């Protein structure tokens, strides 16, 4: 079967670390027609974009690079994917555990024999043979994983972290083999080669276990969609069906205490449903016939029957998981810089190691030169550098999704953390987008009751938000509204019609929202306002505390915009009112950057795209969502401030990780080159390299704990 598409999804196996994902990306980028590649080490998924792509060729190239790959369709079966991720992470940790235990079991006893033989008086010509045999077994059984990866990279004329490990261990082994074969006076380092492989395997084992913990958020998200759904058959009986096999239009039963398996709408029953997976709000929402149900939501009280409106592989959970996976596999600018450094780092290290050997040979100490070179190769391994950004992004994307904040890519996360200006659309964003009557001012001959009565009559046929507000006010006051005749709506001016034999007009007014006239005579004004969101003021205050300058955009009249700004705490100087969609784009482009634009409507799409980080909130249209970098499915704009806060914590962690990785390598190379670490330098280097990896991953886990603690506290409050 052939796939010829502009976007291909791949399932990639046997990736052991972040460096592996980079190797896959490099291999795939070499194919004609490929524009971009994003590989997520955490999920084993890859996304390739380009022109007329051949899925089989992509899979073949990635497999040839050493990572067995298959083509996947666009949809995600959350339950199956969660199992795949868990199994892959367990296998990765298990493989390194096996290598580590085997490596230590070979190295430790023979190393002890090597050092204690003289003391115990059991020295003899057989001891070097034992050391040679044990080291050879270790190179074959423990080192095979490193050598296979390094050889695969070499076939593509590339290098990776395993290149350094392989050359380091091989140098120690073959130097010792030369000494052993030709009976020279130099020391042998058979056990050092075995120890090197054992200690680095221990480090990778700890790294694999810690990485699984750091990436648990995506597994939590995927498990929110049940493994099986309860299908209602035509005879009324029920049967279980794997959620991934559910089709659109199927009838499903959801019992109390169960999660909604697939998106749909209620056709029978009533219950309260916890939709916090999307909204982030823990309070259940009442559901009855016709109401929408979101996959992953928890049915709390009653029994529901729903009709699915998507299949089991394209549910809300699936779409969120796809976004999170894409974000985790994407790269921030700082990561691309780190990748560039890593791409030239290994060749430079190889050159430094070569120069070190030559230098020590010239100085008359070949043995120290070999040991120093091996130490350089091991201590310079850029594994920590490769983990620095992906681990932090993986944590941030996963934890954000559990808050109902979906970040499309790592670059958006990075820019959100650097945001200096945040621009909010007014209507539907800072306000609820549901106008209400604020003030009724009749002339002396009329009462509020009569003014609302005749205005509501003329506005009833209209679909304008102001009309809806006036009609709603009449209903709220229990006013009986007469039928209008000869209704006429004039865009930008108002509406008119005949009520009780008089021509009534409700027109746009400069002093209020609208003026009401009867047979051409002014009879009163009605002011309509848009209700401000409850969390708007706190959101503006929180962004201000983060040092972000807040602006407001609106197509509404300046007076109304200023009033809303004053209510929520935005400076009048930062209000941009009476702006058309094109003017909104120009305003956003002219404000200090990096900027974040928060909006919801189709008229915000251009402004969202013009900002560095576009944020589309729940009530937003598909167009706005497509233009956004961050999607907030809930109706809470406070999540925009939370996104900035999470992004800043993530950036801080990334910078700390990069400092750990860079400083470690830069400081360690001179020490290794000049032999300061001594004859046991390779072992010290292996332990230090493992510590560097664990430090970077541990820092990401600290970020995860911090974000999780904050999320739990918010729920409790």
Quick summary:
The protein is of the alpha+beta class and 717 residues long. It is built from 24 helices and 26 strands.
Low-confidence parts lasting 5 or more residues at pLDDT below 50? 619-624
Q: What percentage of residues falls in helices of 4 or more residues?
A: 40-55%
Strand order of the largest sheet: 14-26-25-24-15-22-23
Spatial extent as radius of gyration: 33 Å
Head-to-tail CA distance between termini: 54 Å
Oligomer: single chain
Largest sheet: 7 strands, mixed
Mean pLDDT: 82
Shape: elongated
The strand count comes to 26
The domain tally reads 5
Strand residue content: 15-25%
Structural class: alpha+beta
Can you tell me about this structure?
- The protein is α+β, with helices and mostly antiparallel strands.
- It has five domains: 71 residues, Alpha-Beta Plaits (2-Layer Sandwich), CATH 3.30.70; 273 residues, no CATH class; 87 residues, Calcium-transporting ATPase, cytoplasmic transduction domain A (Distorted Sandwich); 152 residues, Rossmann fold (3-Layer(aba) Sandwich); 101 residues, 3-Layer(aba) Sandwich (Calcium-transporting ATPase, cytoplasmic domain N).
- It is built from 24 helices and 26 strands.
- Strand 19 and strand 20 form a beta hairpin.
- About 1% of the residues have low confidence.
Topology (elements, then pairings):
Elements: E1 4-12, H1 18-29, E2 34-40, E3 45-54, H2 55-64, E4 69-72, H3 78-120, H4 126-141, H5 144-155, H6 161-182, H7 190-214, H8 216-222, E5 228-232, E6 238-242, E7 251-254, E8 264-269, E9 271-274, H9 276-279, E10 285-287, E11 292-293, E12 298-299, E13 304-308, H10 316-329, H11 333-362, H12 366-379, H13 383-402, E14 406-407, H14 410-418, E15 421-425, H15 426-430, E16 431-442, H16 448-459, H17 465-476, E17 485-490, E18 494-499, E19 502-508, E20 514-518, E21 521-532, H18 536-545, E22 549-553, H19 558-568, E23 575-576, H20 581-590, E24 595-599, H21 605-610, E25 613-617, H22 622-627, E26 630-632, H23 638-673, H24 681-716
Parallel strand pairs: 15-22, 15-24, 22-23, 24-25, 25-26
Antiparallel strand pairs: 1-3, 1-4, 2-3, 5-6, 5-7, 7-13, 8-11, 8-13, 9-10, 9-12, 14-26, 16-21, 17-18, 18-19, 19-20, 20-21
Helix pairs in contact: 3-4, 3-7, 3-8, 4-6, 4-7, 5-6, 6-7, 6-12, 7-24, 8-13, 10-13, 11-12, 11-13, 12-23, 12-24, 13-23, 13-24, 14-23, 16-17, 18-23, 23-24
